[in-house]
Amino acid sequence: MKAMEQVNLLEEQLNSFSSAERTKALAELFERFQAGDIPQPEMRDALNVHAHSFFSYNAYGFSPSALAWLAKMNGYSMMGIVDFDTLDGVDEFLGACELLGVRGIAGIETRVYVPEFKEAEINSPGEPGIAYHMGTGFISSHVPDYVEAGLTDIRQSAEARNRQILAKVNVFLAPLELDYEMDILPLTPSGYATERHMVYRIAQKAGEVLEDPAGFWEEKLGLSLNEVQAVMKDQTAFQNLLRKRLMKQGGVAYVQPDAGTFPLVDDFHAIVQGAGALPCSAWLDGLSRGEQDIERLLSLLMEKGARALNIVPDRNWNIKDPDLKAQKIKELYRVVTLAEQRGLPVLVGTEMNSPGQKWVDDFEAPELAPVKDSFIRGALTIYGHTRMQRLWEMGATSEWAEENFPDWISRVRFFEDAGRLIPPEWTSQAVHGWITQKLRPAQVKSRIRKENESKT
Question: Which homologous superfamily is 41-141+275-454 in?
Answer without folding.
Answer: Metal-dependent hydrolases (3.20.20.140)
